[in-house]
Amino acid sequence: MNEESTSLAWSVNEKVSTYDWIVIGGGITGATLAYELVKQGLNVLLLEKNTSPDNATRYSYGGLAYWSGTSPLTRQLCEEGITIHRQLSAELDTDTEFRELDLILTVSPEDNPATLAQNYQSFAIPPTILTPEEACQKEPLLNPNALSGALLLPHGQMNPYKTNQGYLAAFQRLGGTVAFEPGVRLQQQAEKIVGVQTPTTHYSAAHTVVCAGGLTRQLLRENGMTAPVYFTHAEVIETVPTGLKLHSVIMPAALQRFSLEANSTQPDKQPLWEEANQEILPPILDPGAVQMQDGSFRLGQWSRVLSSPDAMIDPQTSETQIRQRVGAILPTVAQLPGRWRHCLVAFSPETWHSVGPVDNREGLYLFSGFSNPLVFTPALARHFATCATGQEDPILEQISDL
Ligand SMILES: Cc1cc2nc3c(=O)[nH]c(=O)nc-3n(C[C@H](O)[C@H](O)[C@H](O)COP(=O)(O)OP(=O)(O)OC[C@H]3O[C@@H](n4cnc5c(N)ncnc54)[C@H](O)[C@@H]3O)c2cc1C
Description:
Bound molecules: flavin-adenine dinucleotide
């Protein structure tokens, strides 16, 4: 069965009633949070606008960068997150395709591996420097002529789509409700959000949490609110399954995406976010590749900062450039037949501002846009749900006044 047809397993529940929590968005953050809330015995509704997932989770690499904590808080969340992922298949009764594997960060001939390794020294696990020969021994598909070396880190990977579906199924088994609603409006009484209105239904709840990924900003704006959550347009090529075998996750050591995000939210750029069809900064391409366990590859990745979620992008030019850049590093992989895919990815310059109350509205919360989401989300959702039942949670207390 293909991914699109298994998504029909999401059930539609038309019963209208009052909930403790409404979760808006059924990607990995919404599904994980909804599951953790229902596990705490709360009555939870998850609202998703698409019956077939076409979101960041669907096209994600699924990488679990548990080595990347830089503070006691983020190190603890990484540790808790990877511990959850290691047993998540059993907990959800779904094969999440979790595996431990190497992350190889390629260093191009014009860069120096030792210099780039300095940028990684503050992480919980610093990288090992590899020569081109050592990198190619670990990953024979790499082109040694395209490297001055590489950085090696221990990494995890899961199938984000299957994990997402596993969370949704487990949520429903525990009594949670999923409803597909293409349009939602937040219902406000005085300064309090009291639920969600759709063209046909009123869903009321004491608490509503927005997990709408790259559409979070637009959803809040349509409801007259703001929060420091932004988005990039991401593009990858998804190839057909193949017999070629990639043993590691391949990314560039000089990753440009994080500085693109940081620069795009500087004060001088803020007015551009308020206008339609603005290119806030020129796009960047971080050439990399991952393989999923069905043998398909994801090759990428473009990141574009365009102010409109529905901005037009030329798929053909984009695909050609991805193939050229990935082809320099992984020549055989870049030739595989595949389809160009596009989605929005949420980010926040102030990571922890994207977890907690929104815009001083009672009853409205945000859980979207934090960095390193796939390793953090299971742990953060658990802490959020603990707080939601009124229990003390030392981690959430450091992050937000939920
Ligand atoms: C190519 C690529 C590679 C990546 N690799 C990694 C990686 O290796 N490691 C990592 O940690 N992260 C990675 N990421 C980032 C990570 O995958 C995403 O940040 C994460 O999956 C986002 O999950 P989400 O639930 O917040 O958003 P999404 O998956 O986008 O889900 C949001 C959901 O909200 C729904 N929605 C939106 N608006 C509404 C509304 N008004 N009403 C109802 N529903 C609504 C959408 O339909 C969507 O289903 C990658 C992302 C991409 C694109």
